[in-house]
Amino acid sequence: MRAPFPRRRSFALTTLDKTFEPASAEARLYRGWEDSGAFTANPASNAAPYTIMIPPPNVTGSLHVGHALTMTLQDIFIRFRRMQGRDVLWQPGTDHAGIATQMVVERLLDKEGVSRKQLGRETFLSRVWQWKAESGGTITQQLRRLGASPDWARERFTMDEGLSAAVREVFCTLHDQGLIYQDKRLVNWDTVLQTAISDLEVESRETKGSMWHIRYPVEGGEEIIVATTRPETMLADTAVAVHPENEKFKHLIGKLVTLPLTERRIPIVADEYADPEKGTGAVKITPAHDFNDFEVGKRHNLPMPSMLDRQGRIMLAELGELPEFVRGLEGKDRFAARKEIVAELEARELLVEVKPHPHAVPHGDRSGTPIEPLLTTQWYCNAEVLAQPAIRAVESGRIKFVPQQWENTYFAWMRDIQPWCISRQLWWGHRIPAWYAPDGKVFVARNAEEAQAKAGPGVELTQDEDVLDTWFSSALWPFSTLGWPEKTPELDKYYPTDTLVTGFDIIFFWVARMIMMSLHFMDDVPFRTVYIHGLVRDEKGQKMSKSKGNVLDPLTLIDAYGTDALRYSVAAASGQGRDVKLGAKIVETNRGFITKIWNAARFLEMNGVKPNPAFKPEDAKLPLCRWILDATERAVTQATEALDGFQVGAYAQTCYHMVWGDFCDWFIEFAKPGFASGDAAEIRDTAAYVLGVLLRLMHPLIPFVTEELWDHFGYGAEYSLIAAPWPGEIAVNDAETARREVQWVIDLISEIRTVRSEMNVPPSLKSPVLLQDAAPATLARAEAWFEAISRMARASEIGPLTGTPPKNAAQAVLGEATIILPLEGLIDLDAERKRLAGALAKAQA
RNA sequence: GGGCGCUUAGCUCAGCGGUAGAGCAUCACCUUGACAUGGUGGGGGUCACAGGUUCAAUCCCUGUAGCGCCCA
Description:
42% of the residues lie in helices and 18% in strands.
């Protein structure tokens, strides 16, 4: 039996500050990385590429927590692959965001009392460019605060000349192939923004509407009652439809009704669209103002007059001769007109009833205004043709979604894809490369000269006024940023890219369209894996919104707790595809992890730990050292597997347990007596080695604190952790034996602690530990680890039990042996008996 | 109406055909020499419900309920 190690005060020096100060360190480290060229891709290198295209944030954007999530995830993958020695390209850039940007600048002009139209197209556009020059860099500056490490020198903007050339090339080619065309059909018209928008930009909102039942007189004296949610559009009705099998109305099919108010005569047609179960079973048909009615109108060859203008006001020009009441509606807003029409119908006793009818009404996602289906001429892209190879690419596994369930969503949409309306009645964007001759002939060309050549000399051409949907240029992002249509070394090396990281909300807007365009023009997939992450919500799981006032500002969180704490928080919370719940409290708690790492390193430094390049893990002899090296090896393997499988949450958790559990709770505690022993050198070397591995392992997750410690300990040159190699296999001599031995010690200490705690032994009192039936090897272990056991389990001595167990001893079983803790004199036995009696009574009650 | 997902400790979530896990919260104890942004220990679960497959189901299958999202 040995006495406990003597009390000793340590006055070893440390040069590390008491705590990590992110505010001062982050900016300095970031500059250091950027200046060192660590972010730079190198097309000339022989290293295998790894590429991520950043989802270009809107140039009007400012950093929100969604960016914090998506950029952290991307930066983790990027830094991981960079450390693995890949030639990494993280392509940054911003999106011109047609509608959003135009709205921002128009709002500014509004304050000056000027309108866009007063300025005229050219002046307005120069104002937008001016705004972009002044304010367009906000978002990219803010991305730096997250520690994001893209190749900034390669930053692109969707309206750069090169990218615009790509847009024109794609437009002209698709037009030549018949895949882009003009068509007059119903579009979703935003009456506020005064532009067409695509199906995707429409969101349906549940609205408390009404169902009006209106009497339409049929020739021969009968009447038919139609049900509608939009009475005002009856001005442009061109038929009433009933189901062909509907016995109630069968006899009326083919007869004419007199449309109330306008007094026009329109037919009753048979069409399966008229659901006998809905409303009255008879439905009015307004082909120019309803998508379903438009289809019915086409099937029955009905006229399609419009009765609303582009502001959503009543327009009578196409309706022919009209009675006075209707003429009085001209120019009135559609909702005002609805009231007047309903009142008039009521006055004429044509209104049978009004039923409350909650239903979904389409709204513009930007303007929030009800969408008006309008018959206009627009440019369309034949998405159905482009979708076929894109569907096959996912079916065949050439592109994989993670989590895979999103493939279902993708397929469902792609297999029922509609023509994509790509023209927008805006000024800010890529102007449609089409020119019109005075006779209306259209010439699609890459530029005005080419158009002129096509039209012939002397023909006066005017360019199409419209611009393209913003998503048209985003769809080309994976190759347009690399210089396409030029043949560039970048295109050669980095296409196809590896991973796309984005949210599910833009699978259709962006992901699907990139896949379609890329396959068509590059003849290869744009990326191999689509990693879809969830949404960031508040602590309660609610969506963040300004109106709820629960929006978290990532910059505020960074200022308060540091970027590493924020990154760790979002990464750890991001189970595959799950929504991420985030609150200041969570980030604050996780800052504790950063502090823990810092303090562990600080303690090691105090004890003379510094990197020893001559140290080889396979030469480690002490079980303690072999054990921690082996544990580290397993953590490295787990973390690498997790990152390979896009399991960022599991990666974060592995790091957490390795550092806080194995390294701090056990290894460092075991090492404390070791630092004062003859084994100190190997323990120091091992500690330094393991710390070096862990800093590398965690760098993608928490880049700042790890780089700071790496630099401070001198593992490499300043700012070199970002470029350090990812930890590989760690050779450990007979890891199995070391693992068994240390695990036994851990179990022993845990058992003693549990028993002592349950028996309420005051920590200040040490107790002997006796081992009954212990094998000689077990006793030898106990002896060898005595100092650690003494410290950590408050053991005064440890040895075999000789004779019979003492009275009043607590017991626990560990392996073949029984641990015996004599408690005589350590606890108040009477108090303990009372406590147990009380517990027993409670259990029996 | 169609599709997808979720339901495991008070909360947030892992897990997996074979003895239920983590973090946070909670309770008790501890100014032990890196860290009170800390340490140690405890309590706490019919794994939504009902069937089925199986030697064995929290896990696989079917259904039900509740919640969420997408599409119409």
